[in-house]
Amino acid sequence: MLVDLSHFLSVLSTTLFLLTSTLVLVLDCEKKHSSILIKRAFSHAFILLFFSFAIYVYLAATDDFSVVYISQHSNSMLPIFYKVTSIWSAHEGSMFLWILFLSAWGFVFNLNKDSNLKIKNFAIGIVSIIIVGFQLFLLITSNPFETNLPFSPINGADINPVLQDPALAIHPPFLYMGYVGFVIPFAYGLAFLLNGNAGINWEKVVRSWSVSAWIFLTIGICLGSWWAYYELGWGGYWFWDPVENVALMPWLAATAFVHSLSVASKSKSLRIWTLLLSIIVFSLSLFGAFIVRSGIIDSIHSFANDPQRGMYLLIFIGIILFSSLWLFTSRFDLLTSKTKIKSFSKESFISLNNIFFGVLIFATMMGITYPLIYELAYDQKISVGAPFYNAIYAPVAVLASIILIISIESKWGRSFKKIQKFNQLNLSLALSLVAAISLYFYANNGSAIIYMSAFVGFLLLIRYLILLVFNTFQKKHINIPSMLAHMGLGMLILSVSANSIFSSERVFNMYPNDIKTYRNISISFNDLQLINNSNHDSIRAVFKVVDSNGKSSLLYPEKRKYFVRGQITSETAIKVTPLKDIYITIGDQLDNKSWVVNVQLNYFIRYVWLSAIMMALSGLIIVISSYRSKP
Amino acid sequence: MKQILKILVFIVPICIFAFFYTYLSKDNSYPGADYRVFEIPSFALTELYTETELSNEDLSGNFLINVWASWCITCRVEHGFLEKLSNNGVRIIGLNYKDDRIDAVDWLKKYRDPYELIIHDLNGSLALDMGVTGAPETFLISNGKVIAHYRGEVNQMIWEDVFIETIKDSEIIL
C-alpha cells in the first residue's frame, strides 16, 4: 500500500529529525566533521519527508479513497488541480503541508554556507526539534494517513466549493511559507544566545531570511483578501475576521522586526528588542496555527473542533515560547549595547514606530481574546468588530506615518540637521493638504479621521515622489526598496480611506428584463442561463451594466449547486474599471419569481492589493540585492 | 530595572497561556444556552414600522424572539439563517435593541425582513427584563413563557442542538 509507504517515510523522517537534534546536543558543533554529519542527517530527513508528501499528492491525484482524509475531501469528479489542492483544504493535510514547508526552510538554510559553524548547527538543532514536535502532533492527534480498509468508499466526498478556486489553492501555501519562514531568524537568534559571543552580527545573517518570509506572508495575506472579495462574496478587502487578525499580527511584528534588524545590524543598538521580536514573530505565527486548529474561534477558516489538538498545540507552543524567553532573559547582558540611540536619528524614529507596531499587535490580540475572556467570565458571547479596530488602527497609522515622513531625511547614528531640505517637506505638505481638502469638497461625507488618513496617504506618496524627482536630478542615492514599500504604505492608507468614503451597496429585487439605475449606472437584467459543469450545475444571470461614461459591459454572476455536497454558492461578477469595481451577486429567487440582486460599488479596492504587491516587491529587491552583494 | 524588564517579558505570555489553558480545559457545551423557564415580562413598547403600541397581549402562540440591532455585526451573519427559518414557517418576532428607528428600517430594507412583527426597544427596557446582555440573542417562547434562550448567533447547529431539542422535549408545535 502506497499510503503505508508515505506514512512510514513520514515516521522515519521524524526519527531522523530527532536524531539531528540529538547530534547537535552530543557532538562538538565547532568541528567540521560533526557539522557535515548534522547537515546530512537534516537533509536526509527532509528528503524523506518530501517523498512522503509527494506520494501523498500522488494518492490524492489518483483518487485513492482508501485514505480516510482523501475520501473525505476529494472525489473523482474534481478537476485534477483541485484533487491536489484538496490536500490543504482541511486540518490534517494542511498541517502536513505546513510541516513540509517548515522543514523546507530548514533545508535551504542547511544547504547555505555559514561562517560560524557552531551557531549554524545550533540553529539546525532548534529547527529540528520544532519540526519533531509538529510531526508528532500530526501523527498522534491528526493522522492524515489513516485508512478505512477494507471498506473503502467508491467515491469521495467533496472539497468545499468555496475552496475550489485558484486563489485559494495558492493562498494557504503562501501564508504557511510566510508563517514558518520565521523559524530561521527565531532559531538563529536563539543559537546566537546559546553560543554567547556578543560580537557576532546575527542580525545581518537573518535579514534576507526574514525579509523572504515577510514577502510570503505579505502575498499570502493579500491573496486571502482578494479571494474573500471575489469568491466568498464578502464584498470588501478586510473584515477583521479573527483568522485574518492572527495573520495580521505576525505580519505587523515581522514588519517591525525587519526594520529593527537593519537598525541592529547597522548600529548595534536595539539588539535586545530585535531578538525579542524574533521570538514574538515566530510565537505569533504559531499562535495563528493554534487559533485556527484548536476550534476556539468560529470562522470560515477554522478547521474541525477538537480540544485535544488545541491542548497539544498550546502546550508545545508554550514550551517553545517559555524556553526561548528564559534563554533570552538569562543572556540579557549579551545584548545590552553601550551605544545610546541619539534623538532624531533614523534609529530613534524606527524605535518610535516599533512602539506603534507593538500597540497595534497588542490591540489586535485584545480584540481576538476579549470575546473569549468575556465568554469565560460571563458565559456569554460577544463579538469585537470593525469599529474597535478602526478606532485603533486609523490614528496609530496616521501617527506612525507622520513619524515615517519626518524620518525620511534622518541619518543613521546622528541627529539630522534641520532647515536644509525642509522645502521638500513643505512642498509635499502643501500639496497633500490641497489634495485632501479637495477630496473632502468632492466627496463631502465621511469622518475627520478618514480625511486625516487620506491626507497622510497623499503625504507619503507625494513626499516620496518629490524625493525621487529631486534625487534623480541631483544624481543622489535613492533607497529604492524603502521608497517602494513606503509608497505602498501611502497607497494602502489612501486607498483604504478613499474606499470607505466612496463605496456603497444596494440590494434590488429584479425580474428578468428589469432595468434599474444606481448612482448613474444602469443595470439591466438581460437573461438567465442554465449551465452544466463537471461537478456542479449553475444558474447564470446576464447583466448589462452601463457606466456613467456610457461604456457598457456584460456581467455574469452565478449561483452554483454542487452535486456531491449539495451546497449552493454564489459566484460574484465584477467589472473592473481604473477607479472602481462594479460588483454584482445574485441571491435567492423570491416567491414572486423576482431575484435578489446585490450591487456594490467598490472604489479603489484594486489599489489596496497593489500596495501589498509594492511592499512584497520591495522585499524582493532587498533579498536579491543581498544575494548579489554576497561574495 | 533589568529585573523588572525580565519579569515583564514573561507576564503577558503567561497570562495569555493561562487564559487559553483554562479556556480549552473547561467543558463548554453550548455556553450561550440557558433553559430557565420564565414568563415574558410585561411591556408597553411600539412597533418598529407602524409605531403602534404593543404589549403582551399581542404575542400569542409559539414563536421565537430574536434580539437584533443594525449596529450588530453578528446579526448580519445570523440574518440569512433567520430568513431560512421564517421561510420554513417559523414565526420570528424581532426585538430591535437599543437602535435608531431609521437605521433599523434601512437595515431591514437592505437585508430583508424575516420578522412577523418587530418590537422597538430603544432603551432596552424589555430586553433588560428578559436578561438580554447583547445582540444577537434568541428566545423560544411557548404560550407566553420563555422556554429556551440562546446568547449569540443561531445557526443550523445551534438550532438543532438547542432549539429543536427543547421543542421536542416540551412537545410543542412551532
Descriptive account of the structure:
The complex is a heterodimer of chains A (631) and B (174). Chain A is of the alpha+beta class and 631 residues long. Chain A folds into two domains: 2-388, no CATH class; 505-606, no CATH class. Chain A contains 19 helices and ten strands. In chain A, strands 2, 3, 4, 5, 6 and 7 form a six-stranded antiparallel beta sheet that branches. A four-stranded antiparallel beta sheet of chain A has the order 1-10-9-8. The mean pLDDT of chain A is 88. Chain B is α+β, with helices and mostly antiparallel strands and 174 residues long. Chain B has helices at 2-25, 73-87, 101-111, 125-129, 156-170, and strands at residues 33-34, 38-39, 44-47, 53-55, 62-68, 92-97, 117-121, 137-142, 145-151. The N and C termini of chain B lie far apart (66 Å).
The CATH architecture term of chain B is 3-Layer(aba) Sandwich
**Amount of beta strand of chain A:** 5-15%
Radius of gyration of chain B: 20 Å
Apparent shape of chain B: globular
Write the CATH fold name of chain B: Glutaredoxin
Write the topology of this structure.
The complex is a heterodimer of chains A (631) and B (174).
Chain A: H1 2-26, H2 32-61, H3 68-73, H4 80-85, H5 91-111, H6 117-141, H7 166-181, H8 183-195, H9 202-230, H10 242-267, H11 271-294, H12 307-330, H13 332-335, H14 346-378, H15 386-407, H16 422-443, H17 448-473, H18 480-502, E1 504-510, E2 515-518, E3 521-532, E4 536-546, E5 552-555, E6 558-562, E7 568-571, E8 573-576, E9 580-589, E10 595-603, H19 605-629
Antiparallel strand pairs in A: 1-10, 2-3, 3-4, 4-5, 4-6, 6-7, 8-9, 9-10
Chain B: H1 2-25, E1 33-34, E2 38-39, E3 44-47, E4 53-55, E5 62-68, H2 73-87, E6 92-97, H3 101-111, E7 117-121, H4 125-129, E8 137-142, E9 145-151, H5 156-170
Parallel strand pairs in B: 5-6, 6-7
Antiparallel strand pairs in B: 1-9, 2-9, 3-4, 3-7, 5-8, 8-9
